Amino acid sequence: MGLLLGLTGLSLPALAQDTSAAGDTILVFDASGSMWGQIDGVPKITIARDVVKELLDDLPPERRLGLVAYGHRRKGDCKDIQTLVPVGGDRAAIAKAIAGMNPVGKTPMTAAVQQAAEALKFTENEATVILVSDGQETCNADPCAAAEKLATMGIGLTVHTVGFGLGEEEAGAKGELKCMADATGGRFFVADDAKELKDALAQISVAPSKKSKTAEPAPAKAEPAPAPEPAAIPTGKASLEATDQQGGPVIRQDLVWTVRHGATGEVLHESDATGKLEVELPRGVHDVSVVRGSDGATAEGEIKLTGDRASLSLPLVVELKATLKVPATAAAGSKVRVIWTGPGEGNDYISVGPADAGNSKHANYTRTKDGNPLQLLMPPTAGTYEVRYVSAKNHDVLTRESIDVTEVGASVEVPAKAPAGSTLRVAWTGPDYANDYISVAKVGSAGRSEVNYTRTSAGNPLKLLMPAEPGPYEVRYVQSQSHKILASQPIETTKVSATLDAPDSGVSGTRIKVSWTGPDYANDYVSIAKVGSAGRSEVGYQRTSRGSPLELTLPDDPGTYELRYVQNQTHRILASKPVTVTAAP
Fold first, then answer.
1. Do the record's keywords include Isomerase (predicted)?
2. Which of 280, 388, 394, 540 has its CA 20 to 30 A from that of 110?
3. Residue 262: how many other CB atoms lie within 10 Å
4. What angle do CA 338, 341, 343 make, to 5 degrees?
C-alpha cells in the first residue's frame, strides 16, 4: 500500500525523471485487524484499496516492486507474514492481492521488515522498504534494535515509515516507526487521513537513494577505465516436482534430481534424496531428470525458464499389475468373496459398478487393506456389472472382471384389514440381508417413507405396528441397501373407537372415577386436559393398563376441562367428555 499510494499527485513525466528513487522496493502492508478502524466513517483498509486502484497505472515501468503483507490470514499468529508478490512481479498481481486482503491478525511489523530486506538481498544491493502501519509492534520484537542491526549489515538499506490513522494513544507506535526510519536513513511521516497519507508517500517516492546522497569526489586526474565486467547472466527460480504415477500425489522424499544445460549439457544442479525442489538456474531451456531411490523409477523432461519463475512436474510411471477372482453371478444386494492380487497400497480398493459407466463410478467398494479375500457388497438392482481393482493414487483401474447380478424375490402375508394402531403378525420371505425390514407405508410413497417398521432380524413371523390413522396402506419387504422395495401387499386400517363415563363435575384437587372402553393398546392413557389443547397436552393422566374404572385427580385451578381417551401412537384422541372443576369450599 505504501509505495503505490505514495505516487499520488505526481505526473507521469515527473516520475519517469525520478531516477534517484528508482530501484528495487518492497512495500510492507499492514493487514492487521486494526485496519478495519475508520477515518471519517471509512475503514482504513477501504481507503488503501481505493488509492491503489486510482494510482497503479501511473507507476514508471522501470520501478521494480514487491509486496509483503502481515496479519491477513490468521488471528493471533505472529508468523502470519507472507511475500505475496516478489520484486519485479506483475503490478496487476499487487493490486489484486491488496484488494483481496481481509485484515484479521496481529502486527509483526519488525519481522515483516526483516523478511522484506532479506528478499531484496540488502547485504548485496541498495534496497528500499516502505512500511505503512496503523499500530504498534504486537509480537514481542524491538523495532529500533532490529533496524539498527539491518542498517549495520546492509550496504544501502533504507526504511521509510508512515504512521497511518494513529490516535493519541498510539505514541508508542509513532516512536517505533520513527526510530526504524532514523536508524536506516529513511523518512518518517504521520498521516491522519487519505490526503495526508498520499502526500507523505509522494515525498517518500522521490527521496534520493543513498548513493545519490554521498557522491564520490572527482579524481585529480583521469585514470584508465577498468575493463568492463562480463554482463550478468539473468536467472530465474525453477520449481521441480514429481508425482507417483500420472496424476497421482506429489512425492515428498527420496528423489535425486539432475538439471543439465539445454545447449551444452553441463550439469547445472544435482540433488540427493529430496522431494520437491526449487533451484536458481540461468534462463533458457534445460533438461531435467529425476530418479526415485526406492525402486529406481525415472522420468525426464525439460523446463523453459524465460522469466523469473517456471515449474515442471514429472510423473514417475511404474506399471502396476493386479488380478481378480469373482463368481460369474451373484444375487442383488448379496456379498461376494473376492480374491485379489495387486499393489495393495494405502487406500487401493475393489469396487463394483455399471459396466458402461466411467472408471470412477461405483455402487460399492471395499479397501484392499480389509483383507484378502475380502467381502464386496453387490448393487441392489439386477444387471451386468464390473468388479474392478482401483489404484487410489490416481484412480486407475488395474484390472476388471464382469459379474451378472440377478434379482432376488420376497413376499409378505397380511390380512386385507386391521384396526388402526393394532399390532399384526407378518409372515415374510426374502434375502434377510443385514438391516432389511418389513414396513407399513402410505400407498405409492418411496421405499424409505415408512410409518412404522420392524427389522427382518426380529424373526419370522414378526410384529408390525399399524398406523394410528385409518386409511389405505402397504406392508412391504424393503432391502436396506438403497431402500429397494422387493414385495408389497395392500392393507386397510379401520377406525377404532373409545368411550368415557365419569361425573360431569368435581371439586378441584379431588379424585374422580373414570370408566372407559377402547383398544387398550400399549401405553394408551386416559387424561384430563384444557379444552382445545393438543392430544399430549394433558394436566394429568393414567395408563389404561391400570384397568377400568381408574382414578384421575382434578386440577387445582377451577374451570372447564376435558376427559380424554388417547391412543399413545401419535397421541390420537379417540373419545372426550367435558368436566367442570369447581373451587374447593
1. no
2. 280
3. 18
4. 125
Q: Give the separation between CA 250 and CA 239, rounded to whole angstroms.
A: 13
Please write down the HEC assignment for all residues of 65-91.
EEEEEECCCCCCCCCCEEEEECCCCCH
Determine the Cα–Cα distance for residues 39 and 270; give it in Å rounded to an integer.
55
At 411, is the pLDDT very low, low, confident or very high (cuts 50, 70, 90)?
very high
Q: Whole-angstrom Cα distance, residue 581 to residue 529?
A: 12
Phi, psi angle pair for 63, to nearest 5°: -80, 115
**pLDDT category, 536, cuts 50, 70, 90?**
confident
DSSP code, position 283: S
Q: 141: which residues sit within 8 A by CB, 6+ positions away?
A: 108, 110, 111
pLDDT over threshold 50, residue 19: no
Note the pTM of the prediction, 2 decimals. 0.50
Residue 67 one-letter amino acid: L
Sheet of 499-501, strand order: 499-501, 511-517, 550-553
Distance CA 168, CA 162 (A): 15
Q: Cβ-count burial of 233 within 10 angstroms (0-12 exposed, 13-18 middle, 19+ buried)?
A: exposed
* Other CB atoms within 10 A of residue 584 CB: 10
Residue 490 — pLDDT band, cuts 50, 70, 90? very high
Residue 207: the pLDDT is 61
What are the pLDDT digits (tens) for 27-75? 888 888 788 888 887 888 888 777 666 666 666 667 788 889 988 888 7
Alpha carbons 52 and 568: distance in angstroms, whole number:
70
Taking the CA atoms of 124, 125, 126 and 131 in sequence, report the sign of the dihedral they define: negative
Which three cell numbers mark 424?
Answer: 399384526
CA 215, 221, 222: angle at the middle one, nearest 5? 80
Distances (CA, A) of 553 to 49, 234, 503: 74, 98, 13
Which residue would you say has higher pLDDT here, 515 or 584? 515
**CB neighbour list of residue 333: distance below 8 Å, 6 or more residues apart:** 377, 378, 379, 380, 408, 431, 433, 479, 481, 484
Percent helix, strand and coil across the chain, each to the nearest 5: 20, 40, 40
> Cβ(162)–Cβ(170) under 8 Å?
no
Is the preceding peptide bond at 282 cis, omega within 30 degrees of 0?
no
The C-alpha angle 9, 12, 14, rounded to 5 degrees, equals 80
What single-letter amino acid sits at 241? E
**Alpha carbons 269 and 274: distance in angstroms, whole number:** 13
Task: Please provide the size of the chain in residues.
Answer: 585
Lowest mean pLDDT among 196-210, 334-348, 354-368: 196-210
| Residue that the C-alpha cell 376427559 belongs to | 563
Write out pLDDT tens, residues 247-270.
888 998 889 899 998 777 888 888
